[in-house]
Design goal:
The chain has 3 helices and 9 strands, in the order βαβββαβαββββ. By secondary structure, the protein is α+β, with helices and mostly antiparallel strands. It is globular.
């Protein structure tokens, strides 16, 4: 059976990205390996899951730098599911995560759009 293991997310700086995803979003750092050429293999994922992870890939050139924060053209491109929307929304807000709207309760679940430190848009979502 196939599954998506990693999704590359272009970042400006490894350490600031690790800090945001682990401290503000509560992800776990799975791997941080120096590749010997100034680059690193950095993988984070939501704590306690074995599902798809993010490969934090530092931009290497101008074209990659231009895509930081705009990898999905301004649309919500990432969906973080939660089992307790209220708790995670409050924790993330206290950690400085910028929500773009008040929480909504839709037929499919509770949701609020937030931005990561680069401006990529995410849904925090507790499905029904």
């Amino acid at each position: 059976m196939s599954h998506i293991a990693l999704i590359a997310l272009v970042v400006r700086n490894y350490d600031e990205a690790i800090a945001f995803y682990t401290d503000a979003l509560g992800f776990e750092l799975v791997e941080d390996t120096d590749r010997g050429d100034g680059s690193r293999w950095v993988v984070v994922r939501p704590r306690g899951t074995g599902t798809a992870s993010l490969l934090l890939a530092r931009a290497k050139n101008e074209a990659e730098r231009a895509s930081i924060g705009a990898q999905t053209g301004g649309r919500v491109g990432f969906f973080l599911h939660t089992e307790d929307f209220a708790v995670d929304h409050a924790r993330m807000t206290a950690a400085g995560v910028r929500f773009l709207e008040e929480p909504r309760h839709e037929a499919y679940g509770s949701v609020a759009v937030f931005e990561d430190l680069y401006g990529n848009r995410w849904d925090l979502l507790q499905p029904v």
